[in-house]
């Protein structure tokens, strides 16, 4: 058994691990490496490795090193806080983003934004390029859509986020958008990630439908290794055998990612559940679990939405939700604008 | 039952389906659509829909009825509320259960119970028969353990819940235990479920590692169809590709089950995450999502626990958590004792 | 990095591992334990651990020991061969079992057996106690069914296998059945496994819907540690996100299990796919992958089957399949009766 | 589209559904069953079925049409056969592709190709752009690599296939490559798929790690709707809870896809299993299940491979495998060159 100590481990921490190993019946050998110390437990004994993971300043048990470096909590003690238009993600802040799934028209965006303004929304979402499973489904308004959301957001003093789908769109997006969004299907579009590493705007990176926490962090590392440290991770549900909801929202990602990384992690309950009446309880749960933000679909008239209306909140529902999570946040040491 | 025919279906194909339905006891009605034809089988009869799928030019077969009846929300509008020792599960109540994974000794149970009493715990958990993956692992104290937990609980005016593993143990459990617990691995031990239908005590039924919501409700139906309506469902994590945590806690189960059924649903964050520092945020999240209760592992000295110490809270951690969730519950319209 | 050598490893094998580690940039330390030798690679280097797993007599990389012992290939070099009524499972033999899902009547069993006899079937399957998801579905004929299958099998000089569901049924099954079958839902019914360890008959142990290879072997270990070494493992599909078929048949289990264990592994393509027209190609594939046997559902008149008719072959289909797999087996070094 | 109403549905609920269907462009027909009512929406219109699920007292909504048309078996009775350099995929032909994971050097490609030539390989694979999880891992030789594989293939009279990662690379790939390969991570890179619809070369489309059969066919539809009908589907393992192998190879995909579509389906056992000694049995199994081709990693010296050596066959192993599958193919009515 190998117990890898954190860089901050004191000699006492190391001694405690060695003693714990010996108490369990191992022979303990401490090997001081250049980067860090590893305690080797020799012997063939039934133990629960998690017992060791929970000791002070133990970084990992058995596997030697994580493959991500810049994204790792180890490389930076304090939380990364990303601020856009006065909204903060990370640290003690829980930032909010809202808006329709798809940009349909100026009127639709403006009516929605107007109502969201009353709930204090400062960042507007809306898709102009839509990754649709079927080639026959509506594919989005394209650049025309980006122009609309930019103009509407400006009118309402909001910032803009929208999903980018390929390298060739970066220049266009830089003109209209404040936060680049990488969708779940592109989480491992490595060429796109590399190029976003050279962009001077925050990136929301959504977890792929079957991606592990480690893979999500490795994808963040692609962006960061290009020089862009403003990465906001986003849990939006994974694919499991359960088909009642669109995906299975994995809220445990929140405390896990916050332990492994200094990057903020937000939650998208709309895509995760795919059902409007599940968005509210899951949003509250995400805040109670300590998430750094939410991105929620809201449409001024969901029944007429071109796309994903079934998972969009009515503005009044968003407003109620907003009031609830504002109460929950301080209980878990967080603050919502 | 609906049998949707393919576009190529001939009149003969359709006739054959109709006759097959009638042979099974349905009344068959053919409805010719523009795109394709649907044969409607009227009646409530148990059949295997795949028998129909294999007929020529059948495109899809759709069951019209949910298979659970007594457990269905349809059969009972108001929430079932189950009360044990003054603790209520369901409706506006969120009940709490706490205690160690395994009963190790009188002293261990008593010390733990003493501390839990200060946090207002009224139902004590502890395993006497342990379903261990390995035959070489500690299998529990057996009936001796049940005697210990009963005696300790009595001293502290607590009720008792413990996991039952087979039909042959029912009589023994009736002597010592107030709530029977059926573990995830036994969720489809149908013989056990049937027998628990004749027991006059509440049953906590844990969701299997790869069981759907519908299967969980069908297993509840096994118990209820025997006459025992006091079933408490329990989400405790499902098995997915993500291996960082022991299982993936599926909190969306809460609003889904509450829509489909009138039975209370509680959450076991200890087994779901397998890591002590994830139990607290996930407990808060469960309450914020509207769960009807929590069952949490607490040990007076987790580092010395025989089993699953890594996921057990220290009593002081439980106490902190208790204070937090008491604040969250009223925000979502719930009440914690 | 820890490389655990097999007990059969020679000094040369160990040296090769050490040299390979050093070639990759590690410092290698050999630690001779009492039970076996571990080579410790010191250093923080990116390698693919599978490169090590493929070296001669390397047992495992990183994790120290497997938790199963009696079932492990290490504990027994040669394959276990289990023989019932002249049919052999394991080693170079591929044994066949066939029959209906459920025992419905004497006539149904007899007609089916008569036709299977012509295809050289020597072991008859048929369920008397059925684990049904719904309490309202047909639960089997019970002991009456066991009497029928025994009597029919005797008439056709066949052996009998049937599924046992709980400890209390063991005595009854010993009277009628030659091979005990443990279903997927009971793979971790540890009480049942323990008791089957004291039975003097072979046991078919089916893999649970979400059980890993290691857990399957651990369950076999439960039976073997009681003294019964006649365990036949059975792959029957796992639960995944893909819902077109009932389950996802995992044929890679065959070469994996054969490497990890000396026990025979057979395949149940009927339950895995749930669709008759998929049974034939998957049976052929299983044989080509080197399985030690097949258990296939056949009904003399599938359209009238009480249960799972949709996945049952017609006798003539079984006969065709039989001819095909008899040709495939010798290509992969196996023999079918 | 079928909207199944719940038992509690009032006449008003039903009317609302009918009107909603008509508002979306369908013709609505109400059919009153004994148990419940079904509203039939006639027409082929893209809608989100969840919009209907959220209406009052709607129990279930059923889509009547598959979303892929050009790829569907319905649209073309005979199998599509794709021929490249004399090798045929589809119909009664099983085509073979082999080569290393990554193009490392001219020498490596040439030595490998030389040996593969002796096993009658006519299509050479090799990656020049590698989608690596880590930004710090080798990313491939790029265009230089494509030049090498083209030149080596020409010397050995072979065709070339290599993985393309983004739209911007299409022009480059058209110069060097005979079959475009779309990796699992790009199966839903819709922009890339659309552009490949305008290319006059066959495309191998690999199934995503968590993609359903239907999604795979929808992605093929993206390519075909652009005018390119030469799509070869490829099963390469899905992500499940089982971690012993890299992925879980889903061979049932073969008979399922062949029923749903006329497109050829091949198998990549190297990426699916990630372990050399599993490639051979799984290749045999794939052929026995009736696959239309195999793509296998072979390296003249796997131990020195830059990438994925652990899953690459030695040339002599490939040769043995070749001989075995040539014997299996005719048993299942197929032919290997």
Specify the overall morphology of chain A.
elongated
The helix/strand class of chain A is alpha/beta
The named CATH superfamily of the largest domain in chain A: Aldolase class I
CATH topology of the largest domain in chain A: TIM Barrel
| Portion in beta strands of chain A | 15-25%
As residue ranges, the low-confidence spans of chain A are none
Which protein chains are joined by the largest interface, and how many residues does each one contribute? Answer: A-B, 44 and 49 residues
What Rg of chain A do the Cα atoms give?
22 Å
Query: Percentage of helical residues of chain A?
Result: 25-40%
**What is the terminal separation of chain A in angstroms?**
47 Å
* Strands side by side in the biggest sheet of chain A: 8-9-10-11-12-13
- Looking at the overall shape, the CATH architecture of the largest domain in chain A is Alpha-Beta Barrel
Record field, number of beta strands of chain A? 14
What's the mean pLDDT score of chain A?
Answer: 91
Tally of domains of chain A: 2
């Amino acid at each position: 058994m190998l117990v890898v100590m954190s860089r901050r481990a004191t000699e006492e921490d190391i001694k405690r691990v060695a003693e714990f190993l010996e108490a369990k019946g191992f022979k303990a050998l401490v090997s001081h490496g250049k980067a860090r110390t590893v305690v080797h437990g020799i012997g063939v004994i039934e133990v629960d490795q998690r017992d060791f993971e929970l000791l002070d300043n133990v970084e990992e048990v058995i596997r030697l090193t994580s493959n991500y470096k810049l994204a790792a909590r180890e490389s930076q003690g304090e939380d990364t806080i990303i601020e856009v238009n006065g909204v903060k993600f990370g640290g003690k802040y829980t930032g909010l983003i809202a808006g329709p799934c798809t940009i349909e028209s100026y009127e639709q965006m403006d009516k929605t934004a107007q109502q969201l303004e009353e709930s204090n929304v400062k960042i507007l979402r809306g898709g102009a390029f839509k990754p649709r499973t079927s080639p026959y489904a509506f594919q989005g308004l394209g650049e025309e859509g980006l122009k609309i959301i930019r103009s509407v957001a400006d009118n309402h003093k909001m910032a803009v986020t929208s999903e980018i789908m390929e390298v060739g769109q970066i220049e266009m997006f830089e003109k209209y958008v404040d936060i680049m969004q990488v969708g779940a299907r592109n989480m491992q579009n490595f060429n796109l990630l590399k190029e976003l590493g050279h962009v001077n705007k925050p990136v929301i990176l959504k977890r792929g439908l079957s991606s592990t926490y480690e893979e999500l962090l490795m994808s963040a590392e692609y962006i960061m290794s290009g020089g862009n440290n403003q990465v906001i991770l986003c849990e939006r549900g994974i694919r499991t055998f359960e088909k009642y909801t669109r995906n299975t929202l994995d809220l445990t990602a929140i405390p896990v990612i916050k332990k492994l990384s200094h990057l903020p992690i937000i939650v998208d309950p709309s895509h995760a559940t795919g059902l409007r009446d599940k968005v509210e309880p899951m949003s509250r749960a995400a805040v109670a679990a300590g998430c750094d933000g939410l991105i929620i679909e809201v449409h001024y008239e969901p029944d007429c939405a071109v796309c994903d209306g079934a998972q969009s909140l009515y503005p009044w529902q968003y407003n109620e939700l907003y009031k609830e999570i504002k109460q929950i946040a301080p209980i878990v040491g967080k603050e919502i604008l």
